[in-house]
From TrEMBL:
SUPFAM superfamilies: PLP-dependent transferases (SSF53383)
Similarity section: Belongs to the class-V pyridoxal-phosphate-dependent aminotransferase family. Csd subfamily.
Organism: Microbacterium hydrocarbonoxydans
Enzyme Commission number, as recorded: 2.8.1.7
GO molecular-function terms, A-Z: cysteine desulfurase activity; pyridoxal phosphate binding
Any Pfam family hit: Aminotran_5
GO BP term (any one): cysteine metabolic process
Co-factor(s): pyridoxal 5'-phosphate
Protein name: Cysteine desulfurase
InterPro entries referenced in this protein's UniProt entry, alphabetically: Aminotrans_V_dom, Aminotrans_V_PyrdxlP_BS, Cys_dSase_SufS, PyrdxlP-dep_Trfase, PyrdxlP-dep_Trfase_major, PyrdxlP-dep_Trfase_small
Amino acid sequence: MSISGGTDEAARSDSALTDAEVQRLREDFPILQTQVNGHPLAYLDSGATSQRPLAVLDAERDFASTLNAAVHRGAHTLAAEATEVFEDARATVARFVGADDGEIVWTSNATEALNLIAYSISNAASGRGGAAAERFRLREGDEIVTTEMEHHANLIPWQELAARTGATLRVIPLDDDGALRLDVAAEIIGPRTRLIAVTHVSNVLGVINPVSTVVSLAREVGALVVLDACQSAPHLPLDVRALDVDFAVLSGHKMLGPTGIGALYGRRELLEAMPPFLTGGSMITTVTTTEAEYLPPPQRFEAGTQRVSQAVALAAAIDYLTAVGMPRIAAHEAAFGRRLVDGLAAIDGVRVLGAGIDLPRVGLASFDVAGIHSHDVGQFLDDRGIAVRVGHHCAQPLHRRLGIISSTRASTYLYTTEAEVDAVIDGVQAAIDFFRRGA
Ligand SMILES: Cc1ncc(COP(=O)(O)O)c(C=O)c1O
């Protein structure tokens, strides 16, 4: 990695990355040197998936070239070494989020991690897991609470869980700006609430939600808290113990890692009591033709052959992020988030979603351009080599609440330059000029 820890840089441990540092970081990302539509690529779609530095690409390739073997299965040397690096990678994720190694379960992405929790709970509801799993049993009259701003991945699994168990799904609404109505949350969360699922950072608004308020409400009534950390783990220092959540999920591909790997954090005593979701090889101690005994967590939740090279590459991504410094990445993102929001909101005809919310943010802004479809805005920017996301960003209820069906989203990361942020803002103004002229 090219960023160095010289004295000056070390002294700036909480300050935003300098332009020179970002330029040096960019050299580590081969894709950022490419051209798109005759322009240097300006990648403003890290909220969907991030780009990978050489250290991550090399880690995956090195594993495949020198260590590839199935983990927790073979007695041969390669299998033992592969198992060791796989478990080291788990420890890296655990350290990164402030958890113990045994509290991290590998999944293929955050969506699978959320479904794992929901299906384990409904397995408990149907009597699996015995007395230990009693605390997860949902019944008619019980309530699951989520919010109107969730990504579909943190909404549909709870709709399905409610349908399977007879529990009721309740939704914390948003105000006209898109902020969580915490006053209403305090009314909704009550003695019937068994589980609350909330996103740490909205993938549409870019705001960092006041999770501690939701956790306090949950603690008052003994409800479990599931945190969707997909958009926070890549961009902020994350400490699941300090946040006092029961579960948290993240996706490797949003934090410089490969696709196909994600992680679930679960408080140890909860994972120990939860029945498995997927069953099969590698998660058992004894099997007869009629029944099976399961391993303790995390292996109990890791049925089948594991994604080892992806786990190792995710650990390399975390090492990279840690070396740059999460507080510095957060400061970089906060500055660019503000620049995007202010620059876009100043354009006549542009409505930045959540612009009025007074909360800290990451480097992500979604916006609606009056009279121009988000797909046209995205296409116009793409012609300039600028990659953004268009559509509903898997958050249809949030868009519906704000009175629109789609938006354009620009999202930054540690490799984003100020010039790229300004190119988005200039590009949106140019798109408006172009389409209005044509109208
Ligand atoms: C807030 C949030 N939650 C969950 C997800 C789902 O992540 P994945 O598709 O990697 O499972 C995303 C991805 O866009 C997201 O932004």
